[in-house]
Amino acid sequence: QDGSDDIEDVSLFDADDDVSRRSKKSKIRHPVASFFHLFFRVSAIVVYLLCELLTSSFIACMVTIILLLSCDFWAVKNVTGRLMVGLRWWNQVDDDGRSHWVFEARKVPAQGGKTSSEAESRIFWLGLITCPMIWVIFAFSALFSFKVKWLAVVVMGVVLQGANLYGYIRCKVGSRKNLTSMATNYLGKQFLRQTMATEDQAAS
């Protein structure tokens, strides 16, 4: 592997699109996937907060948290993202040793309807965004309170959950160019809105 990354956007296999089209958008169609999407990551946070009360063994706490984080990384990357929001990402190495990042998104029906449940989508993105932010807070807390032994654990949480967050954001918005363009357009709209509001105030 020569370290160079090629970005390839492909469409996810559109199996069960007919079923998705017929089901209610507000209903949770994959309750087991929705449960485990939050279970592992929330359990890791709870164990981190309560481990010193539950046991005096740092090794046992560290192994438990890392196992929960690893299970969460695998489940979110390979299962819940595909089922709940129709997104999936991974890295593969071709015969030349070049690294390819592949980001998949389920095809949108021709009628323009949504293929994923709105309730599942909220659960997915809320868990995906909130938990990495909590681990970042834990990282700063461990750093400033000089809990060096916990720093490796919280860094593992930030890396594993941050990787899934980055991967799914790339799946959602497309290539790095699209991500930059999206941020630029948002800032441009905010600046234009603020300018118009200022002009209206000046005119009145």
TrEMBL record:
It comes from the Eukaryota. One of its GO terms (cellular component) is Golgi membrane. The keyword Translocase does not apply. Keywords: Membrane, Transmembrane, Transmembrane helix. It is found in: Membrane. It is a multi-pass membrane protein. This is Golgi apparatus membrane protein TVP23 homolog. InterPro entries: TVP23-like. Belongs to the TVP23 family. Its main location: membrane. Pfam families: DUF846.
